Amino acid sequence: MENELINEVEDVFLCFIKLIGKESDGYYRYEFIFTDNVDEVWGNDFNVKPACLVNGLMVEDEYIYEVHTVKTKIKLDLAQDNCCFSMSDILDGICALGWENVDEYDEYPEDRGRLFFKFGETLETVEEKLARCNILMSI
Q1: Using CA atoms, how far apart are residues 85 and 66, in angstroms rounded to an integer?
Q2: Own/partner pairs, 18-22, CB within 8 angstroms, 24+ separation
Q3: For an engineered disulfide with 34, which of 12, 41, 89, 134 has Cβ 3.0 to 4.6 Å away?
Q4: What are phi and psi of 137, to 5 degrees?
Q5: Residue 22: burial class (beta carbons within 10 Å; 0-12, 13-18, 19+)
Q6: Phi and psi angles of residue 87, each rounded to the nearest 5 degrees, phi first
C-alpha cells in the first residue's frame, strides 16, 4: 500500500531537515522530510524571527509525505537553528534548509562544492547532491 501511494505522486519536495543526533561512531543522523504539498507547507512558529528562539521547530504533520534517513560524517547547519532568519524566510528561498558546516575544514571542498539543501528541492535533486558526497538516503 505504501509503495502504491508513493507511485501516485509524481514529485515530492524537501520541506524540513531534522537532526536526530550524533552517534557514537561520529556520524550525524538526519531526517529529510518531504511533502507533496510544497505550496502550503507550514509549522507552528514558522513566522518567529529568528528561528533559533523556538525549541522543537517542526513542519506540521499534515504536510509530511515521506521521511528519509541520512547518516553522514558531514555536519549540517540547519535553518531552525539560524539566529538571523525565520522559517517563513526559508520557505521564501532567502536561506537554505541546511548547509554543510565548513568551520572545522582545513580547506573548502572545491572538488565537489559545499553541500546545501533548499526548501522545495525534489527528492531526485536531494539524492543527486548527496550522491556527489557518497551519501545515500534510506527510508
Answers
A1: 26
A2: 18/58, 18/78, 19/76, 19/78, 20/69
A3: 12
A4: -100, 150
A5: exposed
A6: -65, -30
Q: Residue 68 corresponds to which cell in the numbers above? A: 528519509
Which DSSP symbol is given to 127? H
Write down the pTM of the prediction: 0.89
d(CA 24, CA 17): 21
Residue extents of the structural domains in the chain:
2-138
Distance CA 18, CA 96 (A): 13
The residues near 27 (Cβ < 8 Å, ≥ 6 apart) are 71, 72, 73
Q: What is the pLDDT of residues 73-118, one digit of tens each?
A: 999 999 999 999 999 999 999 999 999 999 999 998 888 889 999 9
Say if residue 75 is exposed, middle or buried (CB neighbours under 10 Å; 0-12, 13-18, 19+).
Answer: middle
pLDDT tens-digit readout, 45-80: 999 999 999 999 999 999 999 999 999 999 999 999
Number of residues in the chain:
139
